[in-house]
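Hi L., both proteins are below.
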Amino acid sequence: MMDDPIFDLETIRDDGVPVVIVRGDLDDTGASRLDTTVRALQTDGPTSVVVDLVATGILESGGVDMLIRLHSRLHATGAELVLQGPSRTVMAVLHVTGTARLFTIRRS
């Protein structure tokens, strides 16, 4: 399986907090890659994670499901999942699915 050429993840740190920047559509394949990335960030123990969605075009059902699972997994360890800068389109999906209330959302 080839990587999606229009999907990319980049991890940076902002004051020690990991920020995963999602570029492209967050579908099933992207969701799996996001899960792998966040799991790798948790190897040294629970840490809150920011998922930057500024450059995310479409949030598909697999992406919503993964965000819910990440939220649950982090919350269970006392950490937090923060969604940063979601577009109107992404926010609409979160509201329609009733999941927006689960997340701490920071506007860019």
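That was the first. Here is the second:
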Amino acid sequence: MIRQPIFLHDFQSQPAAYRSDQGAILEWIAAAHAQAEITIQNPATEEEREVITRRLQQLVFRFGCSTDRIAPRAFTVAFMKMLLTGRRNEHMHNPIT
């Protein structure tokens, strides 16, 4: 059996459908890590939970790429829009214009 070569061509760049600013993404990352840490540690008081949340916010904003280095971020998965905004709407399947 002789294999025929396959050629890929005619590539096109397509912009991602959804956008968010870096600050919102960093906040979401910090909140997700804080929630995970709270789940693991099971702190007794709201004050202890706030300490964990503040600590992780500080770490993410210190070591994450700052908003003056990355302005908007683009992504293609509508689910990420829901995660970043914290709400679901009837237009989740439609790109943001």
